[in-house]
Design goal:
By secondary structure, this protein is α+β, with helices and mostly antiparallel strands. The chain folds into two domains: 96 residues, no CATH class; 101 residues, no CATH class. Helices cover 30% and strands 24% of the residues. The chain has five helices and ten strands. The strands form three sheets. It has a four-stranded antiparallel β-sheet with strand order 1-10-3-4, with no helix packed on it. Strands 2-8-7-5 form a four-stranded mixed β-sheet. The chain has a two-stranded parallel sheet with strand order 6-9. Strand 3 and strand 4 form a beta hairpin. Helix 1 packs across helix 4 and helix 4 packs antiparallel against helix 5. It starts with 12 loop residues before the first helix and ends in a 16-residue tail after the last helix.
């Protein structure tokens, strides 16, 4: 039996939109159809980011720390911090060392009596602004060592962009969910597609759940009992 021998199936924006319009019982015909579908795609990506951790968007990078400086603004593409540590002797094969840090709430940070205390940072608070994320470290870095804030973060999904030949910033395994989600969004815009809205919504939620479950980490989880007193 002959097979293609390829593993490269993907959809560009035009393909995604055409499939979604067809599922909504319409045809992609005009420039406005393309414009409104692109807008819905961008909103859909924001919704996915609000749903939680998308593993394909996790990146790692570092932020150099300056003695006495508590707050640091991160890149505009940083959506949230996943894990973080304080690194000393960065780049040294023999002595580079990462110490885990604890993320605290705004309430915990506000109750710190002296936010200017200088030492090796042990905790951080994430301030989410409309323009991006700022981290606040405690204690404030001292001058005894050169510290680096090494962190894994959830990166914002790229915008759809203008050319119809663009591809969405999602892995192929999420394409069924992407098409289903856009079809549902379109069904809410056009009265003649309204009768399909509930069916399309159910299909979208099912496809997203399947994709999200396949995207979860496969690392082993070990739970040890002990220590609890009643």
């Amino acid at each position: 039996m002959a097979t293609s021998g390829t593993y490269t199936f993907d959809l560009d924006l035009a393909d995604v939109m055409e499939e979604a319009f067809e599922r909504a019982g319409r045809e992609l015909r005009s420039g406005y159809d393309y414009k409104t579908a692109r807008r819905s795609l961008n909103l859909l990506m924001l919704e996915w980011q609000n749903r939680g951790l998308n593993l394909w968007t996790v990146r790692n990078t570092t932020q150099a720390l300056t003695a006495g400086t508590t707050a640091y603004s991160l890149g505009a593409d940083v959506l949230d911090i996943v894990e973080a540590s304080i690194r000393t002797d960065s780049g040294s094969v023999t002595s580079q060392f990462d110490q885990s840090t604890t993320r605290i709430s705004v309430s915990d940070y506000s109750q710190l009596s002296n936010k200017l205390t200088q030492s090796k940072p042990l905790q951080f608070y994430v301030e989410k602004k409309p323009t991006g994320i700022t981290i606040h470290l405690w204690p404030s870095p001292d001058s005894q060592e050169t510290y680096t804030f090494a962190y894994y973060y959830m990166q914002r999904i790229e915008d759809a962009g203008n050319p119809a030949s663009n591809k969405m910033d999602v892995p192929a395994r999420f394409l069924p969910s992407l098409v289903s989600g856009l079809a549902y969004q379109l069904s809410m815009k056009f009265p003649e597609a309204g009768a399909r809205a509930q069916l399309l919504k159910a299909d979208y939620e099912e496809q997203f759940t399947i994709a999200a479950d396949s995207d979860r980490t496969k690392a082993s989880l070990f739970i040890s009992p002990g220590g609890y007193q009643f």
